[in-house]
Design a protein that fits this description.
CATH topology: Ferritin
Structural class: mainly alpha
Largest sheet: none
Shape: elongated
CATH class: Mainly Alpha
Number of domains: 1
CATH architecture: Up-down Bundle
Number of strands: 0
Number of helices: 6
Strand content: under 5%
């Protein structure tokens, strides 16, 4: 029965049965020669993870730098306290990421001396917008890390991304703030 089906298929496509069998055999051999994604060498995974951690570290550097500006320009005790708290959070996360990269055998890249801001920041309202902008960008970096990381790190990255989004919401112009 199989031979008849093979002959009919071969006749339809104008290929002799033996050529068809050889072609199918070659395809089967080719498909087994490609590595599966789960068999990616651990060195490649480590390299990718290291680059992703560095990308998040770069975002943490930017956040710490930006909160220095935000803290200097926001009005009111509650906003200054929130900026100082966010700065401490980002500095802790920065230090933790540097330690993790070092433990992986990678040398963390240093922070630049200064950053170009996404827009002019000369007022309290612009400083609040900067804080929201930085937090949303950093949440995106953490989301990428969460999607590509092993479970304990992925869980931490998801929480960090959620925390960034919560801080961004608190800094948005729509957020009601006491002590302004």
């Amino acid at each position: 029965m199989r031979r008849r089906v093979g002959i009919r298929i071969a006749a339809i496509f104008g290929v002799g049965f033996m050529s068809l069998a050889a072609l199918l055999g070659a395809c089967a051999q080719i498909s087994t020669e490609f590595p599966q994604s789960s068999s990616m060498p651990s060195t490649d995974r480590s390299e990718i993870l290291g680059k992703q951690l560095q990308a998040v570290l770069d975002g943490e550097y930017r956040a710490a730098y930006s909160y220095g500006i935000v803290g200097a320009l926001v009005a009111g005790t509650s906003d200054r306290t929130a900026a100082a708290r966010a700065l401490r959070i980002h500095e802790r996360e920065r230090d933790r990421l540097r330690t993790e990269l070092t433990a992986m055998g990678r040398k963390p890249e240093p922070a630049p001396m200064a950053y170009s801001l996404p827009f002019p920041v000369r007022s309290a309202a612009q400083a609040r917008a900067l804080a929201a902008n930085v937090e949303l960008a950093l949440a995106s970096d953490w989301d990428v890390l969460a999607a590509e990381s092993p479970d304990p790190l992925a869980k931490r990255a998801r929480k960090a991304a959620d925390d960034c989004r919560a801080r961004a919401a608190n800094w948005s112009p729509d957020a009601s703030r006491s002590g302004r």
